[in-house]
Amino acid sequence: MLHPMSKGKKLSLEDHADKIREELKVPRQDDLFKAAVEAGYLAARADGGVDDTEREVLVKAVELLSQGLMIEWETESLIDDCKRLADNEGVETRATKVGMALKDLGQAEAGLFVAALVARATKGIEKSEAELLKVIGKSAGIETSKVRDIVKRATALTTGE
User: Could you tell me if 10 and 158 are in contact, meaning their C-beta atoms sit under 8 angstroms apart?
Assistant: First the structure.
């Protein structure tokens, strides 16, 4: 019984994968996933670091939601890039840049939704993670109330029954 709670949440994410994918049917999906992976990574890191479980959930969530568009080694490599960028530039700076990238893609809400799903799929969304999602949302041109709605939607979708 290593992580019974996270296992249940991962299964719940799988159960809802089709519904989530519907939200992500957008142009330039590969760019969206790259920005969303970084947003998810930054949100996970906001509470002090990304542990192995969070990293595993991030990889699995992206694999599941992208339906093979991004495979595990690509996601792992992308997460390593996210870590390097956050180490070099700082988490807040990267959060602002990710928000701007999502805005440029015209997919700020979809990117934040993926980030919220990843944050939720680990241990729930902690205050520090929610604050970072707000930073990303602000630079993407999304109001705090809308970010809150996106987080609530992700939470509702991934709450085990």
Answer: no
In three-state form (DSSP H/G/I as H, E/B as E, the rest C), the secondary structure along 112-142 is HHHHHHHHHHHHCCCHHHHHHHHHHHHHCCC
* DSSP codes, 23-84: HT--TTHHHHHHHHHHHHHHHHHTTT---HHHHHHHHHHHHHHHTTSS-HHHHHHHHHHHHH
Buried b (16+ CB within 10 A) or exposed e, 31-42: bbbbbbbbbbbb
Query: Are 129 and 40 a contacting pair, CB within 8 Å?
Result: no
CATH architecture of 17-158: Orthogonal Bundle (1.10)
Q: What is the pTM of this model?
A: 0.77
Tokens 């890191």, located at residue: 45
| pLDDT > 70? residue 161 | no
Question: How far is the C-alpha of 154 from the C-alpha of 36, rounded, in Å?
Answer: 14
pLDDT greater than 50 at residue 140? yes
C-alpha–C-alpha distance, residues 127 and 151, integer Å: 12
76-81's contacts with Cβ under 8 Å and 24+ in sequence apart are 78/34, 78/37, 78/38, 79/37, 79/41, 79/50, 79/55
Give the integer Cα–Cα distance in Å for 62 and 72: 8
